[in-house]
Amino acid sequence: MQHIRYLILLLLALTSTVVRATNPEDFRSDALSVETLINDNYAYLERLPNGHYQLTERLRTEAGTVNDQRSLLAFLERAMMLLADHHAITGKSFPNSWAVVPSYADLWVECKTGSCIVTAVKDDSIAAKAGIGAGAQLVAVGDQPVAKAIASFWADLGVEKFSDDQAGYAARVLAAGRRDRLRSITTKDPRGKQQTYKLANLYTLDNAAPPVTTSRKTGVFSLRINNSLGDDATIAAFDQAMAQAKPEDRIVIDLTDTPSGGSTTIARAIMGWFVQSPHFYQMHRAPSEERRTGIARQWVEQVLPRGSGKYHAGPITVRVGRWTGSMGEGLAIGLNAIGAKVEGDPMSGLLGSIEDISLPNSGLIFKLPTERLMTVDGVPREDFRPAPPSD
Hints:
Blueprint: H1 2-15, H2 24-41, H3 57-65, H4 69-81, E1 89-90, E2 107-112, E3 115-121, H5 126-130, E4 137-141, E5 144-145, H6 146-156, H7 164-176, E6 183-188, E7 194-199, E8 212-217, E9 220-225, H8 233-242, E10 250-254, H9 264-271, E11 279-285, H10 287-293, E12 298-303, E13 316-320, H11 327-337, E14 341-344, E15 353-358, E16 365-374
Helix pairs in contact: 2-3, 2-4, 3-4, 6-7, 9-11
């Protein structure tokens, strides 16, 4: 039932978009503007061949056939995939669109020289409960060997040659599956046992966890953020939880389930509990402004004390992993800057800070990383590595 409600909401969102375009030429013009908009605004052009974004011939042909909102969105989804950037997505989608990674993925897959390995499995997820473990080799997706499935994914976009990073991007998307159907995944475990799994996609789940949950053991008070860094209610929930902390407690902030990112307001509200004076926590850089004007722009953001008794002086440990994404990653590097120990597995590595880019005629939106984000020491957020887990 939850899955049906989700599909209905997606269809309503798609059909209720305010459309300013009135004729096929307007929609087609929007499609052809995507290339320029990405080149003007994307903060990571150096990742791309020759340092700029270029439609493949196949997608350029598709852009020329766009004539309405639906065909524009279909083209836009495919054009965004050329970036191989999980942080670059469309604002709207179809019921059968590919799942957003990492928000709706439970397998993290990395590929090298044709071999794709599951390097992380989300705790208590559909895949974990089915028995898939880290270290398994991804053998097939659906009825295709994984190498063929990845090659077909890129060939469908007009890309013939691709890197290991692009292969990993495709493998993660393929393993997350389409939003409206079961996934079929075949893996081989480290002992050589091969098994095919039929798995529901994560859009079928009804996630009803509160914004923050807590637990306690001797001298340690743990607060788990339940993918709620975009929910304003998290501020009050975190404050209420911290009111239970003892002055001598070690605070453990669990960010291992924050794949959907969120708001810097909420992150600063959390960090504000652990500073008594303004403190730098994150550095920004705006490459688009530098490309446009020739003048570089970079600045450091501060977190301020919360005041009114909202301060904890004890030590802080932050737990992270592959499903620590976007604002979760920002919160991790921010807490690290104010003295917390960050430990766990590598995070999602989502690039930069995203901004809504609106197509000029239709108003259709895509989300693009437009600012680089770094630690206060200048380490790109995506390159930050936590300490090994302590337990």
